[in-house]
Amino acid sequence: MNRERKAQQQSPQAWTAEKLRSLLHDELAGDEVLVISNREPYIHEQSGDSIVLRRPASGLVTAVEPVMRACSGTWIAHGSGSADRATVDSHDHLQVPPKRPEYTLRRVWLSEEEEAGYYYGFSNEGLWPLCHMAHVRPVFRTSDWEQYVAVNQRFADVVIAEARTDDPVVLVQDYHFALLPRMIREKLPKATIIMFWHIPWPNPESFGICPWREELLQGLLGNTLLGFHTPFHCKNFLDTVDRYLETRIEYEASTITHGGDLTQVEPYPISIAWPEPDTTSDVIQAKKIFRHELNLPEAHCLALGVDRLDYTKGIVERFQALDRLLETHPDLVGKITLLQIAAPSRSSLDEYQNLEVRVRKLALDINQRYENTVAPTIILRIEHYDGEQLTHCYRSSDVCLVTSLHDGMNLVAKEFIAARDDELGVLILSQFTGAARELHEALIINPYHIEQGAQALYRAITMPELEQRERMRSMRQRVRDFNVYRWAGLMLLDAARLRRRQRVSEKIDSHSHQGLR
Ligand code: ADQ
User: Fold this and answer.
1) Which residue out of 61, 132, 318, 412 has the highest number of ligand 1 atoms within 8 Å of its CB and is therefore the one to mutate?
2) Buried (b) or exposed (e) across 168-199, using 16+ Cβ within 10 A?
3) Topology agreement, domain 29-272+484-512 and domain 283-480
4) CA distance 317 to 288
5) Beta bridge partner(s), residue 308
6) 458 touches 336 (CB < 8 A)
7) Which of 52, 159, 315, 342 is the most exposed place for a label (fewest CB within 10 A)?
8) pLDDT recorded at residue 29
């Protein structure tokens, strides 16, 4: 790690949208930025005769959107909404955010067959379980792989069509596009290609079961810079490349040289944009209103879970921990409720349908077991909430439970902390999240250990306010300083450095060629 970067990490100055904007101007002067992700930041859906705008429940979108607003540029993504075609211009472009445009969204259309193979199949039945240790077997089908290759190529063609220069800064997002960096590199050799892998990277043995492991790694080595959430994921990636490809790896410098190309591999812990202070309501008031809305007594203890409905998030284990708490502390029956808000996700896949059945049944069983006249033990809402509603939930809860079995980072943990301007509330956090590497003052648990989860819940609901405040204050400081602008800023600073290096070496090459003539 270079000295400049180390210093920045040790003494983070306030990273803001403004600072990111001026960094782009100073370090990557005038250069164009293209972002590519599967999920689009704004979805238009037909609802009867009208068109409604929806924001997806996606950690990636939560993080990348504020960065894009700061950078302008073009965001290329799959147009997945039923009214998406009706809202673009003749170039499939749309200026967003719709109310106050700051950048361009370019939508890419996929057929049902392409979406089934590339997105549901290879990405979500193959790579997602391959990279997460949640004991769900990956499924690899040749037909899915063929669609994955074809769709990656399609996006590469769109990137090349959208690029106005031969050396744009291209930010590729996530596991849907492992092949894209190499495909772009072939057509735009001078581009600075940065990729962020939003999910964990497994160890070489686990990754090795993928029939197309070499192709995926070669695709990823088309990147100038490849980012993961934690140093551990970076190490797993270097070890995987070492195991399966002929390359030169410099562990000290964290670089890989492959076929003349150099890829830098670095950790960049992702985060959120720190919210503006809420001047409209105080937390005490919000708590009262929310309990009234949920039909709960005023002094009722409220625990909260917010996730996409995904088997990696440990929702079943969370319910089991609550069950165990009430088994061991029957005096708490009717005094605590868990509100679980789960956004429907990938619901056409069997694994996700089975999870929904399991989660619904367990909630019902637990509610029957602890039936009382005061309140249900679990309130399960399988629905999408907007940002304002979620903030209201975070501010009104006593405890937030993040019990992922494996998670690259987990932004819900950070959103909960950011919402608590009263400096109260307790975060229970799985040790298997990237967030646990940063948020040491949370109650860290192993979600597989149900008794430990129950004990943490007990400790959370009986924690004195003084201790809550100490913990929350420290975590708020961390999330405020290490926000999403810092995440993007550090990546872009590193990219700018690599870009300068590449330009210098191109100049030297051309001088030495001229000298030879
Ligand atoms: P996700 O797996 O989607 O992200 P996470 O980081 O927790 O997980 O982000 C979820 C986002 O969706 C949050 O912004 C949350 O507010 C929102 N959300 C959750 N439930 C919702 C609901 N019911 N209604 C509306 N919104 C909801 C992936 C990786 C993570 C990584 C992120 C970012 O799996 O490990 O942190 O990308 O890199």
Assistant:
1) 412
2) bbbbbbbbbbbbbbbbbbeebeebbbbbbbbb
3) yes
4) 29
5) 343
6) no
7) 52
8) 67
Q: What is the DSSP secondary structure assignment for residue 474, as one 8-state letter?
A: H
Question: Is the CB–ligand 1 distance for residue 312 below 6 Å?
Answer: no
What is the pLDDT at residue 515? Answer: 67
Nearest CA to ligand 1 atom 2: 59
Report the separation in Å between the CA atom of 174 and the middle of ligand 1, taken as the mean of its atom positions: 14
User: What residue ranges do the domains of the chain occupy?
Assistant: 29-272+484-512, 283-480
Task: Kindly give the distance from the C-alpha atom of residue 256 to the centroid of ligand 1, in angstroms, as a whole number.
Answer: 31
pLDDT (0 to 100) of residue 7: 47
For residue 341, give the ligand 1 atom closest to its CA. 23
Q: Atom 26 of ligand 1 has which residue's CA nearest to it?
A: 57
**Residue listed under structure tokens 């909630």:** 363
Q: What is the pLDDT of residue 5?
A: 54
pTM: 0.95
- 283-480 CATH pick, 3.30.70.1130, 3.40.50.1820, 3.40.50.2000, 3.90.1170.30: 3.40.50.2000
The series of mean pLDDT values per 10 residues for the chain, 517 residues long, is 50 80 80 93 96 91 87 94 98 95 97 98 98 97 98 98 93 98 97 97 98 98 98 98 98 95 97 87 88 96 98 98 98 98 97 98 98 97 95 97 98 97 98 98 98 98 98 98 94 92 81 68
The CB of 304 under 6 Å from ligand 1? The reply is: no
